[in-house]
Amino acid sequence: MAIRTEEAVISTSTPAVELKGITKRFPGVVANRDIALAVQQGHVHAIVGENGAGKSTLMKILYGMQRPDEGEIRVNGAAVSFRSPSDAITAGIGMVHQHFMLADNLTVLENVVLGSEPRKGGIAIDFGSARKRIRQISDTYGLGVDPDAMVEDLGVGARQRVEILKVLYRGARILILDEPTAVLVPQEVDELFGNLRELVREGLTIIFISHKLDEVLSVADAITVIRRGTTVASVNPKDVTARQLAELMVGSELPSPETRESTVTDVVALSVRNLSVHSPDERCIVDGVTFGIRKGEVLGIAGVEGNGQAELVEAIMGMRPAEGEIRLGEEDISAWSTLRRREAGIGYIPEDRHRHGLLLEAPLWENRILGHQTRRPNVKGPWIDRAGARKDTQRIVEQYDVRTPGIDVDAAALSGGNQQKLIVGREMSGDPVFLIASHPTRGVDVGAQAAIWDHLRAARAAGLAVLLISADLDELIGLSDTLKVILRGRIVADVDPQNVTPEQLGSAMTGAGEAA
Amino acid sequence: MKPAESSFADRLLGRVRPSGLLSLSAPLLAIVFAGVITSIILLVSGDPPLETLGVMADYGTQPRSMVLILNSATTYYLAAIAVAIGFRMNLFNIGVDGQYRLAALIAAAVGGAVALPAPLHIALIIFVAMLVGAGWASIAGLLKVKRGVSEVISTIMLNAIATALGAWLLHKDRLAVEVAGSNNIGTRPIPESGQVPGMAIIPGTETKVFGLIVLAVVVGVVYHVLLNRTRFGFDLRATGRSESAAVASGVNVKKMVLIAMVLSGAAAGLIGMPQLLGASHSYGLDFPTGLGFTGIAIALLGRNHPVGIAFGALLWAFLDTSSSILQIEEIAPEIVQIMQGTIVLSVIIAYELVHRYQIAAGQRRVSKELAGGTPPRVEGASA
């Protein structure tokens, strides 16, 4: 495959945007490390990477919302340093956010001028000239936006064009589009891509953030891949396939987390039958999923993110209404509350540990109680057992090698890996019979990753049933006893992890090839 | 994303604590800041700042003033605790005002209508007040849980409804009688068995401290124990800190919203009790109003901490009480309201400044540690 490394990107003209050695650290995490990126003028330049790879942080740096700790940003050849988004706008960089920032009860015109109103006579807003400019921009780029329409009457695609127009109105020549297709239906995606081509034909530059590989391949002139906070490759879309891109995104050079002999028993710990989840607008997100997990078995679910994995997990945890049957051992738990499911022995390592796994501003020992607030050693009747909880937190810290100055520090002070080890330790406490491990090693360093894999393997050997959701194909293949592929909410393939390569799995995930 | 991201509201409501020496620097900064602003205002209005404060301090330390301060502080404390219960889980119960007025009115009417032995009579009145406060607050709780109505909006509207309902009930055809020797009307006076006698604990004055100051202390202790030592309190604080994490841990958030609202309302029901059972013995047109809003300010000032709120309530009561001397000294007593506002703002600003300083310092430290020595460990920006 023809992949140029980042150093090999050579160009005669000055890049519209050039990033060199960008590094951004947050307490406990390096979000971006030594990023190198060159975006040619008049290109649609796609930046792809898994969720959490560091794309958003990078774009926030480019848009002036975050300041890098190290590195250099050049716009049209000149070094810049942005203190706020308004600096970025002045330099001609505009951002179209994934979630629209429009006031429904105002017209397109009012929304566009909001914050940069043209003045007439010092006080009055000059709507006339603004309307003229909007029409002119709309015609130049073929956006088809009517300045006097109410935003609430517009469809999603039209609203997005208003967002684009808003940015152009402020004089942007470089547009950042953050996951612009996430909210669009296929026809709208095609329209958007038509608009984007129009924009680059007029000399604008577009930075397009996505993890949908087929879309990226169809629209981009150049692609940069980000993995684990750094740029790993710059490729030409003509030279790569979706499969190769997927490999670059998830990486396959890490040593496989091999599990040795099978520990699978024939006792089913958890079974799910015809489980379906619907979104509020009646779309089917999880569609009739059926599987069983036996004691001592790790069932891996592979899939491109956003294909229903998160909703499936939340349905099993009872956090989201669902149809179908869920059985834990012999018991039908479909109607149980989240608390009762947890008490019955379901452990949960959530995908987003900051949102669902931790109280960041509470000390570690209080985080030990979270999710186990009805069980010993954390409580005695209605009372919190401080001594018991603290002692057990100390045990977790030692046994799971959580690097911390003590159990009274806030969870936010720990690095991502240590936070995750604390969560793993907590969820393994209280003798779970079934564990959901959702991206258990995402955003953690290599050392913590190996430790977490060891803990999962040991628990499996002790008879724990594990549902493993991951975007890391090596992790899935290495840890799972059984592998299923999920696509658009359905289980579309069963794969034998013994005889599958990451490439085969990758193509099954995109629905492109046959499962092995 | 920044792992340590907390919202401004979290910091405003004291759910994020500055640590170490910095926790002391915030209140000090606030006092200095408020002092400077007040001095400027006094200078502008042509009064010498130090002497004015001296006059207030002199007056505030006289025995009779001290009793008045304790009595006001008792009421303020209960109001602030009622507000703080909601604050601790992100509920803004603006309706404490309506809850306590309605509760005091109905409890007074019940107390005046029955005759019971002393301890039972008092207990009944207090119980009715808590029940009415809780009931009125539960309307807002139910609306939020069942219909998603913001409790801010519904409690403000319920305040207006409580005012109207109170005016309707306090009529000679219904709960009110004429008060002898005045053109005021009020509920039938509560007989002696339902009154709580004052305590002459400050030497040098005949004025007595509300007996129910004990109730305020008990409420403070219960608040602390309930929130920090019980499973229920853990669930409540967890919900306030992160609703999504609370849901994932098995907390029934809707149930918690309802219970917290009911508890806040029950505490609000107590606000009128020291005054009703200790002094006026009847709910009349002259019963104090607006205490619910004072409670919001004091809860912010005390950062929802039971001891902090006690200091806040005493400070507020001191300023209120000593304002009466200013008029005699021919200084505009409104200066006190400016001081109160300035103090609340200063506390909020000071904690925010300290918090930002801490975040920035923490990031610099981590950057320095990671930049030097061993190569940085690669980690994705965990979402």
From TrEMBL, chain A:
Q: Which GO MF terms are attached to this record?
A: ATP binding; ATP hydrolysis activity
Entry's InterPro entries?
A: AAA+_ATPase, ABC_carbohydrate_import_ATPase, ABC_transporter-like_ATP-bd, ABC_transporter-like_CS, P-loop_NTPase
Does the keyword Repeat feature in the UniProt annotation? Answer: yes
Q: Is DNA-binding included in the keywords of this UniProt record? A: no
Pfam short name (any one)? ABC_tran
Would you tell me the Gene Ontology cellular component terms? plasma membrane
- SMART domains registered for this protein in UniProt: AAA
Q: Which domain of life is it from?
A: Bacteria
Q: Where in or outside the cell?
A: Cell membrane
Q: Which UniProt keywords apply?
A: ATP-binding, Cell membrane, Membrane, Nucleotide-binding, Repeat, Sugar transport, Translocase, Transport
**Membrane topology, record value:** Peripheral membrane protein
The name of this protein is Simple sugar transport system ATP-binding protein
Native species: Planomonospora venezuelensis
Q: What is the lineage of its organism?
A: Bacteria, Bacillati, Actinomycetota, Actinomycetes, Streptosporangiales
From TrEMBL, chain B:
Where is it chiefly localized? membrane
Q: Does the keyword Endoplasmic reticulum apply?
A: no
Q: Name one GO molecular function term.
A: transmembrane transporter activity
Q: Where in the cell is it found?
A: Cell membrane
Q: Which CDD domains match?
A: TM_PBP1_transp_TpRbsC_like (cd06580)
Q: How does it sit in the membrane?
A: Multi-pass membrane protein
Which InterPro entries does its entry note?
Answer: ABC_transp_permease (IPR001851)
Which keywords does this chain's UniProt record carry? Cell membrane, Membrane, Sugar transport, Transmembrane, Transmembrane helix, Transport
| Transmembrane segments annotated in the record for this chain | 21-45, 65-87, 99-116, 122-143, 152-170, 209-227, 257-277
What's in the GO CC field?
A: plasma membrane
Question: At the top level of its lineage, which domain of life is listed?
Answer: Bacteria
Name of the featured protein: Simple sugar transport system permease protein
**Which organism is the protein's source?**
Planomonospora venezuelensis
Source species taxonomy: Bacteria, Bacillati, Actinomycetota, Actinomycetes, Streptosporangiales
